[in-house]
Amino acid sequence: MTMGFLNIEFLVASAVGLLTAAGIYLILRRRTFPVILGLSLLTYGVNIFLFATGRLMVDAPPVLNKYAEVPYTDPLPQALVLTAIVISFGMTAVVVMIALAAYLSARDDKIDMPHHPEDEGEDA
Amino acid sequence: MSLFLIAALPFLGAVFPALLIRAGRNASASAAGLTSFLAFVGLLLHAPAVFRGEVIQVGIDWLPALGLNANFFLDGLGFLFAAMILGIGLLVILYARFYLSREDPMGNFYTYLLLFQGAMVGIVLSDNILLLLVFWELTSLSSFLLIGYWKHLPEGRQGARMALAITGSGGLAMIGGMMILGNIVGSYDLSVILQNKDLIQASPLYLPALILILLGCFTKSAQFPFHFWLPHAMAAPTPVSAYLHSATMVKAGIFLMARLWPVLSGTPEWFYIVATTGLVTMLLGAVIALFKDDLKALLAFSTVSHLGLITMLLGFGTKIAAVTAVFHIINHATFKAALFMSAGIVDHEAHTRDIKRLGGLRHLMPVTATIAIVAALSMAGIPPFNGFLSKEMMLEETVHTLWAGSHYLVPGLALLAALFSAAYSFRFIGHVFLGQTRDDYPAKPHDPGFGMWAGPALLVSLVVLIGLFPAHLVGPLVAVAAGAVTGGADLPYYSLKLWHGLTPALYMSGVAVIGGLVLLKLHAPLIAAWNRAPRPEAKQIFDSAMRALTKLSQIITDGLHNGAITRYAFLMMVFIIGISYFAYSTGTMVPATREVQGVGPITVIAWFCLMVATLAVVAKHRQRQLSLVLIGVVGLVVSLGFNYLSAPDLALTQLSVEVVTMVLLLLALNFMPKDSPVEAPMWVRLRDGGIAVVGGLGAALLIYALMLRDFALPSISEFHLANSYKGGGGTNVVNVILVDFRGYDTFGEIIVLGIAALVIYALTEAVLGSRVRAYLLNRKPDMPQAGDAHPMMMVVATRVMMPLALMVAAYIFFRGHNLPGGGFIAGLIAAIALLMQYMASGFSWASERQRMFYHGTIGSGVLIAAATGLGSWFSGNPFLTSAFGYLHWPPLEEFEWATAALFDLGVFLAVVGAVLLALESLARFAWQPGISSEHAMDINPARDDAAEAAAAEGEA
To answer: pLDDT confidence of B41, banded at 50, 70, 90?
Structure first.
């Protein structure tokens, strides 16, 4: 059974669009935690985007079948996205850590520096 | 010895002094000396060939696409300079051993010195101007370290910065000039460039290239108006001054002018720029030197003057002037290095180098006095020392030089400079060594040990010997070096001898000497007048220029980069959208070629969940815990989507990363506020919403359009599919790409992941070492706590699951090559299995049972991956070429072995280590006294008796 007016390309594209939009909106917030959430959403969006550049196929995993000639989906974007997922975990962890350390040190989780006159220290 | 080795030896040897300093200062100095000595001997082995006129060349193509080749060549000029650099380097190493005090870190000194030596040798042996530029910059950097060696002295730091700023910016100009030069000729190899004089001089870009290259040479060789950094660099220890500022670094500019002399000289532009600059520098340096009371400042300005002299000679553009320049380079190096070392000895023994406080030292330190007086007489141009010879030849040349139609200008000014030169040399002798012995020296001066005066004594004996027997001693060297400068063996007639008859030059010399003596007599009133006269102070001009530049860059930086990260993000988003629109509006769009594919209701339901959850995250982002739950839904649907769209590996990875990320975010949220206040005004939120909608719409339309079209160019994926099994031995193409085809990427990635974990660890250490720790220790939970910190059910379940989970990880790992799985996913699963123990049984319980440090796990993972990669070298293949085969051990099924599995093991370990190190670091924030219970489980039926016993013990 298929849903006549919907197609998989539309679903993926709309998901990418919404994730990107939500990510951008949250990244523009002024506290660290929403920005981290926004980065995560944007990461999903970008990863799906990259993945979809290999075009979409159902039931055609890139695992070679020795016994039959079957279609395979594009493996390269998958490999790229796999590393991207792991790296974005590392990035999220570092950003979370910086946000936490900044909050604990300043007891404040605003991401903009408060404006204050620069201290002009110069090595003689 | 190969030229590669000669150039590399100082760099290789630079490691040892710093290491061997623990074995004592002699060991350190010997290591440095031995390195220089070996390189020097290696160079001398080439001497016979060089003197026969051969040019020794070695080279390998390094980056041929850029024209950057590691080519070296050794001709007469290179030989002369390399011999000076290594020979005087040896003497300086000896001298510094006795000059530096116990408090000075001698290992560092020799390491810097050898780095510098290597860079200099590299310059003079390079046959590729790009390679030469690399070494050129290295000399700037290593001399910065040497000048600022006494980093506790502000003068040292300022002098080092000034030297770096001036020579560094000159170096930048020179890069431009060299690029133009290489472009004109079409090759960056010197030996090719030197053959193309006509091509270069006919080019319209000749003048820009010339000016840029000369800027580099003039700044390096302290030519007017860039001369002022050299005296300030005298804050360096005297061995450095003797080395850098007499024989080597300041001669690098001279060297380059000599090297490029065949193709750049001979034009009016060359003559007027180079000869005039040299003349002005020579005169100015000599005049200022006379009025300096600091011994080293006097010598510094005298060096400026002599460098001007050599520059002027090169600028004349005649072959005979080039011969004279080469000869004076040799002579100046010998007497000036000896003079610097003598000045250092005086400073070392008398504890002052202020000429006004010295005098009469010839009785107290006769050896030093002899050395210094002979060297200074040579500098003054008194026969029979070597300085006289080249100065006479120089004066002779000036007589034949016409400057803008004037016969008298150049010889007149040169004579004046010679006169001042004689005067300051006489002052050096008269006011320091002659005169009455005083009794108010800061310390009782006496001659130093042999080790300290051996170097200058050797140099001074050269001064005398070259003066007496120039033709025999240095005649051949001058001939080959000058031949290399002028680009041909056919040198004009010249003779190196003391007596040339009654020539104009001899009269000029006589005038200079007599005038010098008169000036010395008049010194007291002259210096009084000099000190009264207003004159520009180079350091103040430099400092105010620097302040103005700093101010300017501060204004620009602070204006652009004001700490409002929201603004950066806003600008970035707008820019991305703008540039995407530009790309869209200028590109072409082909019609769709692919059909859309239908979907079933379950897919639509999942999609609906994702859309609603995403919208809810945005709507509810102020409630942070709720938004975490919602984002978990998004992640789950994304994993399902990957699985549905034929990407099982991605689904597994996404799912396990999801778990780890969620644990991480929850841990962090524990310490942070649980909700975000409303801050931005409505119009800002609307504006951001607008940007978000435009950006999202753009991304959606782009990917939709992309998915409906085929690739414009053939994709390499076909190659991967076709070769995965044949070439990589695995049927899971994604895994084979990761560990084989793109193994290098993966290798880099696990290193990045490991570094990220280490950054987190370091941040934790830093934060916990600060006052934050006190806050954390006394922190009261801001939310109601669970009654049970370690619920029994969870503890039991996680412990039972641990071996099972590890088994799953092993299974996923081993099947990865052929079926969905692999090191990344297995690593994440294993990490989650261990994380569960931390969560259920507590941090303390888990830490006590931790057998190895996660740093080590990361490191071993990276090392295993690297070793696997290196292993392919043994079979003569490039880094990370994988090998595989099939084994059949009778009771088992046939199975595959592949080096890629070993590589995957490295990935596995690095992922486990990185994830656990990151989360363990974060968990350490939660530690408070009394948090670790003695028992992992709060309720444990098996412990009733023990608990009572413990209670009883407590009472007792």
So the answer is: very high
Residues B804-823 have a mean pLDDT of 90
What's the pTM value of the predicted model, to 2 decimals?
0.70
Residue B612's CB is within 10 A of a number of other CB atoms, namely 14
Residue type, B833: A
**Consecutive H or E run containing B477:** helix B475-486
What SS3 state is found at B732?
Answer: strand
| pLDDT: which is higher, B660 or B589 | B660
Mention every residue, 6+ apart, whose C-beta is less than 8 A from residue B168. B137, B140
Burial of B443 (0-12, 13-18, 19+ CB in 10 A): exposed
Supply the pLDDT for residue A77: 92
Q: What is the mean pLDDT of residues B843-870?
A: 88
Chain B contacts of A34, Cβ < 8 Å?
A: 621-622, 627, 676
Q: A residues 55-114 near B, CB within 8 Å?
A: 55-66, 72-76, 78-79, 81-83, 85-87, 89-94, 96-101, 103-105, 109, 111-114
| B618: chain A residues, CB-CB within 8 Å | 22, 25-26
Q: Is the dihedral of CA B816, B834, B756, B871 positive or negative?
A: negative
- Phi and psi at residue B72, in whole multiples of 5°? -120, 150
Q: What's the pLDDT at A122?
A: 40
- Contact yes or no for B611/B597 (Cβ under 8 A): no
Sorted by sequence, the CB contacts under 8 Å of residue B652 that are 6+ apart come out as B812, B820, B821, B825
Indicate the SS3 state at residue B820: coil
In terms of Cβ atoms closer than 10 Å to its own Cβ (0-12, 13-18, 19+), residue B108 is middle
Q: What is the mean pLDDT of residues B546-560?
A: 90
Q: B592 by DSSP, 3-state: which?
A: coil
Q: Do B657 and A56 touch (CB under 8 A)?
A: no
H or E segment and range at residue B363: helix B361-364
* pLDDT tops 80 at residue B892: no
Say whether A61 and B558 touch across the interface (CB within 8 A): no
What's the gap between Cα A117 and its chain centre?
Answer: 36
pLDDT of res. A124? 38
> Mutate which of A8, A115, A118 to disrupt the B interface (most B C-beta within 10 Å)?
A8
Preceding omega of B225 cis (within 30 degrees of 0) = yes
Q: What ipTM was estimated for this complex?
A: 0.92
Q: What is the pLDDT of residue A121?
A: 42
| Residue B939 CB partners (closer than 8 Å, separation 6+) | B788, B792
Q: Using DSSP, state whether A110 is helix, strand or coil.
A: strand
Question: In what helix (H) or strand (E) does residue B58 lie, and over which residues does it extend?
Answer: strand B56-63
Give the sign of the dihedral formed by CA B127, CA B130, CA B134, CA B137.
positive
Q: What is the number of alpha carbons within 13 Å of residue B242 lying toward its C-beta?
A: 29
Q: What is the mean pLDDT of residues B930-946?
A: 61
DSSP bridge pairs for B598: A7
Q: pLDDT for B359-370, tens place per residue?
A: 888 888 888 889
Please say if the pLDDT value at position B618 is more than 50: yes
What token pair was written down for B785?
Answer: 């706590």
Say what the pLDDT of residue B940 is.
63
**Of A15, A94, A112, Cβ closest to residue B607:** A15
**What's the CA gap between B312 and A11, in Å, rounded?**
77
Cβ–Cβ of A8/B596 closer than 8 Å? yes
Q: Provide the greatest CA pair distance for chain A.
A: 78
- The amino acid that residue B255 corresponds to is F
**What is the sign, positive or negative, of the torsion defined by CA atoms of B810, B815, B819, B821?**
positive
Phi/psi region, residue B355 (left: phi>0; alpha: psi -120 to 50; beta: rest), is alpha
Are the C-beta atoms of B649 and B821 separated by less than 8 Å? yes
The distance from CA B55 to its chain's CA centroid, rounded to whole angstroms, is 32
